[in-house]
Design brief:
By secondary structure, the protein is α/β, with parallel strands linked by helices. It folds into two domains: about 120 residues, P-loop containing nucleotide triphosphate hydrolases (Rossmann fold, 3-Layer(aba) Sandwich); about 250 residues, no CATH class. The chain is built from 18 helices and 13 strands. The chain has a six-stranded mixed beta sheet, sandwiched between helices. Strands 2-3-4-1-5 form a five-stranded parallel beta sheet, sandwiched between helices. The chain is globular.
Amino acid sequence: MRIYKETVMDHLGQFPAVALLGPRQAGKTTMALQIGEEKASLYLDLENPADLRKLADPELYFENHQEKLIIIDEVHRVPDLFQVLRGVIDRRRRKGSAGGQFLLLGSASMDLLRQSGESLAGRIAYVELPPFGLLETGADSLNMLWVRGGFPDSFLAADDDASMVWRDNFLRTYLERDIPLLGPRIPAETLRRFWTMLAHQQGGLLNAAQLARSLAVDGKTIASYLDLMVDLLLVRRLRPWYGNTRKRLVRSPRIYVRDSGVTHALLGLGDLNALLGHPVAGGSWEGFAIENLLAVVPPRTEASFYRTAAGAEIDLVLEFAGGKKWAVEIKRGLAPKLGKGFHQSLEDLRPDRSFVIYSGKERYPLAEDIEVVGLVDLVTDLTRM
């Protein structure tokens, strides 16, 4: 069972509408149907013409099913529906009905957040459902999850070859069908090249000018491509840390293809041996660790990275709602070594706790204020906060 189900159920008890966001094939529909089995509910898929016709008069339809949780899949396909939902929710509120009226599923944050932000402010909660993470697959499956990524059909495939076939088709479907429906009309081959360039530079600083030259477009076009991929929850733009320091800090974000399996499919890396022999292995492991950590951080946690113009850096800075700060350095290997720049960064940031994630399982202190820890252990620590 997905670990996010409890969060969705809690929000349904408090808010009239809950939006479950995530990339296609991440398991949103499966979770929604599980929730629907536990509550009086009905399910509408707006990709299904028959279900779409049921909403020819949405207010009447919702009125006839006001005692049920209405699950609407691919809701961003009918943006005008949000204004109707606002009226329905407000009328029900006046009659004493509070939470658990609508569960809205969307494959992109972009349209859904914009439309619901206009119409459902104060009436809706958001839950992002990423693909599988380590808490769901278990520590014994760490390498397989890293290689194949967390999309359920990829991770659960019979073998690495079958997983790669699924991911290749996933990429093709997204590029040729889904993205044209959800975003601007961009040639599939151009967008694939852009996506692949990001995979090659996994974890690197954004260099829009270099990407623009490679694709023979301008910087504004690169910005629009990146915004689209971020809004579709396929790419993460990790912001640089800003704060009171005398050091000159890097201002460009770091860019990660969010699912490690998609990264490897874009680069043609089908198994662990191929991955370990490729220059992207370090960046891929870093992105994999970051996604697993950010999937379980407490609400209102701010994530960034720290890097000075002189090169001192820390891969991940977590600033929690209560004011505490963690510094996390990510290393691929069993004997992590820290450079002078890491220690300089700690002096600048003064975090409450400092960690070095590595590929092993043993947990031990590296220095008085630095702890070496496996990824699974640190993920577990975050869930207990």
